[in-house]
């Protein structure tokens, strides 16, 4: 069933003009979704084009990709009804209720989202959010002006294991008072500045999930053992905006005296370190991300933080739920898309919103800014342009 713009708006309860939802008199209308991808520049993230393909309440009416082969291949898997070379033509023709911005590279994210917002679409996008905070601010301003609902692909945040861990740590005091949060990236050939953006963004999102918003940042960035300078600025291996550094260390000040630490350097690429450790007065919760989308979490009930030196040993989190949402690509984003649809209908912010995307990206930008200034920078950052461009 095709929902007309006029009919859709007439039956939307609690949403303003741009928020479109199913007609009340029809119990099973489908929201119309479009997918923006680019096979040769950012692809489709971690299969973001499949996020709507297995839902009964959404029909994928279009997929745009300038690459002919990629366009047909991804459209088939996404169950897209029509294909386009130009995403703007697709948005104008299809007038979608939902848009997915799939490329994992950041350089056109703002362009894509502003076009989708202009046509009044809600949506879902790949991380990282943007090249810099000025772009992120403009993106949020555009969706807030029309009360649109947009989610970002921080899929670990919505994993049952992570949500359970947060309840245990924040609400039930499993490890006592939280003192520190320590994270690292994958530390492969992208170690340093690129790792900070691509993999660090997930770590930062979880730091905020457990500790709140950071108030300041200090950082040290190095290239071949010496302090990085603007002369070291380069492009990443993918279009992500300017970066520098093959090694970095950052410290964040969170509320209540909690400190967050992030580090990355080019090493052996041991992804086993990629994750977040939460240190409290009664022990440690250890969280590790897995490349295929799963999550592992353990607890060490030892206030000395000394595994092997006493009787305490790592054990599973108590009453841990089964990890099912991230088992395969079609279901990878189910928790996020389910909540996004609910947020549209309830006129509320998604649980994993663009604002969360900007906040995590601000922690990235703060590392570059703090290193260049040689001291602590207050957050939110006053300067919204990219630190490596200014």
Comma- or semicolon-separated keywords:
alpha/beta, 18 strands, Rossmann fold, disordered N terminus, Dihydrodipicolinate Reductase, domain 2, single chain
Give a topology summary.
Blueprint: H1 5-10, E1 31-36, E2 58-64, H2 68-78, E3 83-84, H3 87-94, E4 98-101, H4 109-118, E5 122-125, H5 133-145, E6 150-152, H6 160-171, E7 178-184, H7 193-198, H8 200-211, E8 216-223, E9 226-227, E10 234-235, E11 242-243, E12 247-253, E13 259-265, E14 275-280, E15 283-289, E16 295-300, E17 315-316, H9 334-346, H10 354-373, E18 377-378
Parallel strand pairs: 1-2, 1-4, 2-3, 4-5, 5-6, 7-13
Antiparallel strand pairs: 7-14, 8-9, 8-12, 8-18, 10-11, 12-13, 14-15, 15-16, 16-17
Description:
The chain is an alpha/beta fold and 390 residues long. The chain has 2 domains: 5-154 and 333-351, NAD(P)-binding Rossmann-like Domain (Rossmann fold, 3-Layer(aba) Sandwich), CATH 3.40.50; 160-324 and 358-389, Dihydrodipicolinate Reductase, domain 2. The protein is built from 10 helices and 18 strands. It has helices spanning 5-10, 68-78, 87-94, 109-118, 133-145, 160-171, 193-198, 200-211, 334-346, 354-373; strands spanning 31-36, 58-64, 83-84, 98-101, 122-125, 150-152, 178-184, 216-223, 226-227, 234-235, 242-243, 247-253, 259-265, 275-280, 283-289, 295-300, 315-316, 377-378. Strands 7, 8, 9, 12, 13, 14, 15, 16, 17 and 18 form a 10-stranded mixed β-sheet that branches. It is globular, with a radius of gyration of 21 Å.
């Amino acid at each position: 069933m095709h929902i007309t713009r006029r009919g859709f708006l007439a039956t939307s309860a609690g949403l303003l003009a741009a928020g479109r939802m199913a007609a009340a008199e029809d119990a099973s209308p489908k929201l119309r979704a479009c997918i923006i991808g680019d096979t040769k520049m950012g692809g489709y993230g971690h299969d973001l084009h499949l996020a709507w393909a297995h839902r009964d309440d959404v029909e994928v009416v279009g997929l745009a990709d300038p690459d002919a082969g990629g366009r047909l291949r991804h459209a088939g898997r996404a169950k897209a009804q029509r294909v386009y070379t130009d995403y703007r033509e697709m948005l104008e023709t299809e007038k979608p209720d939902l848009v997915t911005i799939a490329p994992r590279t950041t350089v056109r994210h703002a362009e894509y989202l502003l076009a989708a917002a202009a046509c009044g679409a809600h949506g879902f996008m790949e991380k990282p959010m943007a090249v810099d905070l000025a772009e992120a601010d403009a993106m949020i301003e555009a969706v807030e002006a029309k009360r649109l609902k947009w989610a970002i692909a921080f899929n670990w945040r919505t994993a049952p294991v992570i949500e359970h861990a947060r309840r245990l740590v924040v609400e039930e005091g499993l490890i006592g008072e939280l003192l520190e949060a320590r994270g690292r990236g994958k530390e492969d050939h992208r170690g340093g500045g690129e790792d900070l953006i691509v993999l660090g963004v997930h770590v930062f999102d979880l730091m905020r999930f457990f500790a709140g918003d950071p108030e300041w940042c200090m950082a040290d960035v190095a290239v071949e053992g010496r302090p990085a300078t603007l002369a070291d600025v380069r492009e990443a291996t993918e279009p992500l905006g300017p970066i520098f550094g093959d090694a970095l260390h950052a410290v964040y000040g969170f509320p209540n005296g909690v400190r967050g630490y992030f580090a990355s350097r080019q090493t052996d690429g041991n992804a086993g370190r990629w994750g977040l450790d939460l240190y409290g007065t009664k022990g440690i919760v250890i969280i590790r991300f897995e490349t295929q989308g799963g999550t592992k979490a353990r607890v060490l009930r030892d206030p000395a933080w000394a595994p092997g030196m006493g009787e305490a040993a790592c054990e599973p989190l108590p009453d841990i739920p089964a990890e099912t949402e991230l088992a395969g690509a079609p279901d990878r984003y189910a928790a996020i898309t389910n909540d996004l649809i609910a947020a549209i209908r309830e006129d509320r912010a998604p649980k994993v919103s663009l604002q969360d995307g900007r906040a995590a990206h601000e922690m990235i930008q703060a590392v570059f800014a703090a290193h260049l200034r040689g001291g602590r920078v207050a957050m939110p950052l006053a300067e919204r342009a990219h630190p490596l461009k200014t």
